[in-house]
Design a protein that fits this description.
4-stranded antiparallel β-sheet
Length: 145
């Protein structure tokens, strides 16, 4: 039972951590981010199973995390409020060809990052964009004028 409780607590912590990090950071992983994820996984494993190195302990831990994920997914599917908390909502960053500074600052984006994403989608100028949206998964969508 100890492993189950640890798995639930660590799952909640990781979900909280991912929400605090912000959606833009999660959509573009650098090599440093990859190393951080590997280290994070190892640290969580040590806290999850403590001194239990048995296959049974690992199966219980993985099964608990999978069950919690399925439960959270169901909750997110059934409840709009839960989905908003767990996944977030899209944020408008460009409207009528103008950057919305308040939203860009809140999402910790720079104008350069927005411009880079626009260029990747074959858009040269902010003025050419009717709507620019930072999606809940961290990608940017642009609707041209």
């Amino acid at each position: 039972m100890d492993i189950v409780l640890r798995a639930v607590v660590l799952y909640a912590f990781v979900v909280f951590l991912m929400r605090v990090m912000g959606r833009r950071e999660l959509s573009s992983l650098s090599p440093v981010d990859l190393v951080l994820l590997i280290v994070l996984g190892d640290a969580i494993q040590q806290g999850l199973t403590q001194d239990d190195y048995s296959v049974t302990g690992a199966v219980i831990a993985v099964s608990t995390i999978a069950a919690v994920q399925v439960g959270v997914s169901q909750l997110s599917y059934r409840s709009r409020r839960a989905r908003r908390v767990l996944e977030g909502e899209p944020v408008v960053i460009i409207q009528d060809g103008k950057l919305i500074d308040r939203n860009i600052e809140r999402e910790r984006l720079t104008e350069g990052e927005v411009a880079e994403e626009m260029r990747a989608q074959q858009i040269a100028f902010v003025e050419d964009v009717e709507w620019g949206i930072l999606e809940s998964n961290g990608t940017m969508s642009f609707i041209p004028k």
